[in-house]
Amino acid sequence: MIQKSFLLARSLVILYIMLYLGNLIAHYVPAGVPGSIWGLLLLFLGLTTRLIHLDWIYLGASLLIRFMAVLFVPVSVGIIKYSDLLIEQVNILLIPNVVSTCVTLVIMGLLGNHLFHLQSFTHKRKKVIKRRENQAKQMNESA
């Protein structure tokens, strides 16, 4: 029990240090990127370079993920509290979200279509076409 408590404390301390360093970077680098994102990038770099072992942060990260919904309750309360402000600014908030979603969908569709027609995907395209033909035959036979 004491060992597990130590492991949990160690993982939370490492995660907090990454958050603190991220906030420090955000304070000195005027890039407009929040400190939590910098902290996540530092954690990612530490994990990929194996300066930080996954076992060191696993317990704390899994605990935070398990209670993530509870941690977002204050955000939801804030949204409800300022709902009148959100309703006033619905055009400013809604239009960019809808436009960016549509642009993302179109770009991903075009990229998927391009990849589908590449030479390296020819065998997969033939599989899909054959599967569609088989489905059409089965539909015709059952009708």
From TrEMBL:
Compartments where found: Cell inner membrane; Cell membrane
Keywords: Cell inner membrane, Cell membrane, Membrane, Transmembrane, Transmembrane helix
Membrane topology: Multi-pass membrane protein
Pfam family, one: LrgA
Keyword Cell inner membrane: yes
Any single Gene Ontology cellular-component annotation: plasma membrane
Sequence intervals crossing the membrane: 7-29, 35-52, 64-82, 94-116
Homology family: Belongs to the UPF0299 family.
HAMAP family for this protein: UPF0299 (MF_01144)
NCBIfam families recorded: PRK01821.1
Protein name: UPF0299 membrane protein GG9_1011
Species this chain originates from: Haemophilus haemolyticus M19501
